[in-house]
Write a structure and sequence with these properties.
CATH architecture of the largest domain: 3-Layer(aba) Sandwich
Number of domains: 2
Order of helices and strands: EHHHHHEHEHEHEEH
Helix content: 40-55%
CATH superfamily of the largest domain: HAD superfamily/HAD-like
Largest sheet: 6 strands, parallel
Structural class: alpha/beta
CATH class of the largest domain: Alpha Beta
Length: 220
């Protein structure tokens, strides 16, 4: 994990799920809880539910509707928000993420959350984990109509908050999103080594990765 050139960074852009929050909640919900409840609610086997859901997931991955609870509620004929409440006890902060947030805020950095999470998902998580006070803005890609994977998201973000990409740090656990940020010109990029605490470390390919948030503030 590199020592960051904090003197060259004015703005810190942070993802939420898998970056500040443990991705276990989302992975468990979409891969285990939702298929099981879908099977129960529609009176089919779990195997049949998984067979029906898999192509839907693959077709919509990386697009704005993939992150939209309204889309999935309509598509699957059930209330995704209500089902998420059934597993909300699994929502958890990643180790020392709050220490990191407090440090960069007190150092006078501009701190902005940029998440693909639907506003309902964002609200659900903020009800359980007190993140809002650390941020100048909490931005959902649904506000702009483009996911972070899309170059138009970055144009909209620039028009909205007027940040300098060359003096910005962006941390995200999704490699295509980091590549989209790099194309836009964001100079300082970090992936996350272990976004899901139950799945172990992942290969972050060409990106350096956050392994310990407490160590990340060295030199701040």
């Amino acid at each position: 994990m590199p020592l960051l050139p904090w003197h060259d960074i004015d703005t810190v852009l942070l993802d939420m799920d898998g970056t500040l929050l443990d991705l276990h909640f989302d992975n468990h919900f979409w891969l285990e809880h939702l298929p099981r409840r879908y099977a129960q609610l529609h009176g089919i086997s779990l195997a049949m539910a998984e067979m029906e859901l898999q192509p839907l997931f693959e077709r919509n991955a990386g697009q704005l509707q993939w992150y939209c609870l309204d889309f999935w509620s309509t598509e699957l004929k059930l209330s995704v928000r209500e089902l998420k409440l059934e597993t909300a006890h699994l929502i958890a902060l990643r180790p020392d993420a709050d220490t990191f947030l407090a440090a960069i805020k007190s150092a006078g950095k501009r701190v902005v959350m940029i998440t693909n999470a639907h506003r309902d998902s964002l609200s659900l998580k903020l009800e359980r984990i007190e993140l809002a006070p650390y941020f100048e803005r909490l931005i959902s890609s649904h506000d702009y109509g483009f996911p972070k994977e899309n170059p138009q998201f970055w144009d909209a973000l620039q028009a909205d908050i007027g940040f300098d990409p060359a003096r910005s740090l962006f941390i995200d656990d999704t490699l295509p999103i980091l590549r989209s940020a790099r194309e836009f010109g964001v100079a300082h990029l970090l992936a996350v080594r272990e976004p899901d605490s139950r799945k172990g470390p992942k290969d972050t390919e060409e990106f350096a990765a956050v392994e310990n948030y407490r160590e990340l503030v060295a030199g701040l």
